[in-house]
Write a structure and sequence with these properties.
Layout (H helix, E strand, L loop, with lengths): L1 E3 L6 E3 L12 E3 L4 E5 L12 E3 L4 E4 L13 E3 L4 E4 L13 E3 L4 E5 L12 E3 L4 E3 L14 E3 L21 E3 L21 E3 L6 E5 L11 E3 L4 E5 L2 H4 L11 E3 L20 E3 L6 E4 L13 E3 L5 E5 L13 E3 L6 E2 L10 E3 L4 E5 L12 E3 L4 E5 L13 E3 L4 E4 L11 E3 L4 E2 L15 E3 L6
Parallel strand pairs: 1-3, 2-4, 3-5, 4-6, 5-7, 6-8, 7-9, 8-10, 9-11, 10-12, 11-13, 13-14, 14-15, 15-17, 16-18, 17-19, 19-20, 20-22, 21-23, 22-24, 24-26, 25-27, 26-28, 27-29, 28-30, 29-31, 30-32, 31-33, 32-34
Length: 447
């Protein structure tokens, strides 16, 4: 018998009388408004194969009585307000293929007994407050396809036993407190398509060639650690043409000193993060041909030693670029002009000089423009205040602009900073029409 009440208007406490439906083998009550405790009487529904109570507001602990549901294949309790520990007895549900407890308020250590669930293909414990080490017994789940443990407080090293999960296509350990280095055994996961290890405290030297084995890899995110990536260029360059075609690449804060040359063969990149490295010199000219039709986000900020660009085009070649962050480097010359698709353009805290080209006003999709803390000079283009209906932030502070402020502004402007320049004249009356304006900074105007 099956009972499905998803997306209905049922609300209130979960009925304790549920135990009377002892013939149920499928119970789906996701996206309702059930609240309160989950009754232990649920453990009497011993024929259940599928239990989905996700996306409610259930509270309290997960009842240990669920251990009696030994026929369960799917247990979905994600997106509730459960708290307390995972009952170790859930390790008795050896028929489970999917276990999702994501986005709750669960605490404590992940019980090693979950390693008994050898039929699992999906384990999602993300978005809780688990601490302690990742149990090495997770490496016994040799049917796993997806392992998702991000946004917890997990510590310790990545267990080398995870290298046994040969069927794994998605591994997400991001946003924890994991330390030590990336175990060599991870290179055994040759079916990986998604690998997120970002925002931990991983350290040590990692040979980048290990990721070349993942020929199906689409996402590689290592940013926000203390790793030192090693590129053995003499051997690596011969194979760069066969490196996986990635969609997302995050190598921020990985102690990289120059642009990795394998990027020149990447055609499908949408997201590229190379921020907070030690890259120096100029952005090589071959970068202008990397993923020209697909790149939407490029972040090379906070490298501090990047000085400019080798033969840049007048308008950057990435036709779909939406975010370009070049801030906190030592870039000289005039500001680059992205394609009209750009929404966020940050190039603050550099050494830009000269006039701001009127071409900047072709960026009609722009939400955020930050040119602050440079050496830009000359008159501001009069179109600068209203060239984009979406413009919310316009930061021109700490430059050497002179003359008058633009006379018209988009109504959606929330922040306008023109401080520390050489501007003069009266404040434009049209700023009174900016009903969304929260910050207007005109202080310490240079004379």
């Amino acid at each position: 018998m099956s009972l499905r009440v998803s997306r209905t208007r049922f609300s209130g406490y979960f009925p304790f009388s549920i135990e009377k439906l002892d013939s149920l083998n499928e119970f789906v009550a996701s996206r309702c408004n059930f609240s309160g405790l989950l009754p232990s009487s649920l453990g009497n529904l011993r024929r259940l194969v599928y239990l989905d109570l996700s996306n409610n507001t259930l509270t309290g602990s997960i009842p240990a009585s669920l251990e009696t549901l030994t026929q369960l294949s799917y247990l979905l309790l994600d997106n509730n307000h459960f708290s307390g520990y995972i009952p170790p007895s859930l390790g008795n549900l050896t028929q489970l293929t999917t276990l999702s407890l994501a986005s709750n308020q669960l605490t404590g250590a992940i019980p090693s007994s979950l390693g008994n669930l050898t039929q699992l293909t999906e384990l999602d414990l993300s978005g809780n407050d688990f601490d302690g080490h990742i149990p090495s017994s997770i490496g016994d789940l040799n049917q796993l396809i997806t392992l998702s443990l991000p946004m917890n407080q997990l510590t310790g090293p990545i267990p080398s036993s995870l290298g046994n999960l040969s069927k794994l296509t998605a591994l997400d350990l991001s946003s924890n407190n994991l330390h030590s280095s990336i175990p060599e055994s991870i290179s055994n996961l040759t079916n990986l398509e998604y690998l997120y290890l970002n925002n931990n405290s991983l350290s040590g030297k990692v040979n980048f060639q290990m990721f070349q084995k993942f020929q199906n890899l689409l996402v590689l995110y290592l940013s926000g650690n203390k790793l030192e990536l090693l590129f053995e260029e003499t051997r690596f360059l011969n194979a760069t043409a066969t490196f996986p075609n990635l969609m997302t690449l995050g190598l921020g804060s990985c102690n990289i000193t120059e642009f990795p040359r394998f990027l020149r063969y990447q055609e499908n990149l949408r997201w590229l993060d190379l921020a907070e490295n030690g890259m120096h010199g100029q952005v090589p000219k071959w970068m202008w041909n990397v993923s020209t039709e697909n790149l939407t986000v490029m972040n090379i900020s906070h490298n501090y030693f990047l000085s400019g660009f080798d033969q840049p085009p007048v308008v950057l070649s990435w036709s779909g670029l939406q975010l370009l962050d070049l801030s906190s480097n030592m870039i000289q010359g005039s500001p680059l002009i992205p394609s009209p698709s750009i929404e966020y353009y940050l190039i603050s805290n550099n050494k830009l000089s000269g006039k701001l080209l009127p071409l900047i006003c072709n960026l009609t999709s722009l939400n955020y423009l930050d040119l602050s803390d440079n050496k830009l000079s000359g008159m501001l283009p009069q179109c600068l205040g209203n060239f984009s209906d979406n413009l919310g932030v316009l930061d021109l502070g700490n430059n050497s602009f002179e003359g008058h402020l633009p006379q018209t502004y988009t109504r959606n402007l929330t922040m306008f900073d023109a401080s520390d320049n050489k501007l003069q004249g009266t404040l434009p009356r049209s700023l009174a029409n900016c009903v969304m304006l929260k910050f207007l900074v005109l202080s310490i105007v240079k004379q």
